[in-house]
Predict the 3D structure of the following.
Amino acid sequence: MPELPEVEALRGFLGERVVGREVERVYPVAVSALKTYDPGVADLEGRTFEGVERYGKFLGLRAGELYLVMHLARAGWVRWSEKLPDGPPRPGKGPLALRVRLAGPEGAGFDVTEAGTQKRLAVHVVRDPADVPGIARLGPDPLAPEFTREVFAALLAGERRQIKGVLRDQSVIAGIGNAYSDEILHAARMSPFKLAARLSEEEVGLLHDVLGSTLREAVERSRGLPLRDLKAEKKSGLRVHGRKGEPCPVCGDTIREVSFSDSFLNYCPTCQTGGKPLADRRLSRLLK
C-alpha cells in the first residue's frame, strides 16, 4: 500500500509533468472506482492542472476550481506515459481504472491502475478536498512544521490503544500505514503492543523524533525516481516490515511476524520486546 513517502514522491513526479498542461480526455474505465458523479471526471476536460497536492495518503490534482483526488488503497498505482495508446481504453478485467490524456504533446498522460480482486481504489472529483470524507477526518501531517513534540504528546494523551494502532489511525496522524509504523517502532526500540497513554515523556520525544526522521529518509530515497521504481525502493528500504525470518539489521535476532485476517506486523524481539515473542491473541483489538 502506498504510504506517505510514496504518495509524496508521486506528488513531486506528477507535479513536474502535469502542472500547466490541459486535460484533453478522461476515460473512466472502472466505474466502481468513481466515488463522485457531480462534478464528474468529464468536467476536468479542457481545464489546466495548476498543482498537485498530498493529504496524508490521498493525492490531489488541482484543475481550476476542481480537484481530482485519488486514494490508491492497497494495490493502486499511477503509471506515467509519454505516449498513451491511441483510442479509448476498453473496459475489462485488467488493472486499468482511469486514464487521463493531456493535450500537447499528443499522447502524454497517466493511468491509474489497481491490481488484484479487492477493488478499493477511490477516485473523487470535488470542488474542495475537504468534501472527501477520508480527507475531512485526517489528523495532522507528521512532516508539517507544526507537528511538534507537544502536538504529538497531546495526540497520545489518554489513548488507551496500543501504539501500533494509534500510529496507523489516519484520524490521529495522517499518512502512516502498516509498513512505516513497523519501521518507526523498530527504530524507536518500542513494542507495538505498548499502550500509547503509558509512554513516558522521554519515550514520546524519542518516538516523535524517530517518526519524523524515518518518513523524511524514505521521502528522500524516493525523490526523483521513476514511478516504476518507487515500489521496489520502498521494499528495499524497509528494515523489518515484510522481512519475517530474516536477521534484524541492528542486533541479528530473527524478525518475527504477527498475522491478522488481512494484514500483519513485523518486529524484532531483542530490540523491541525484551526478547519475548508477541502472541496473536493480544492483538484482538489492535487495529480496530
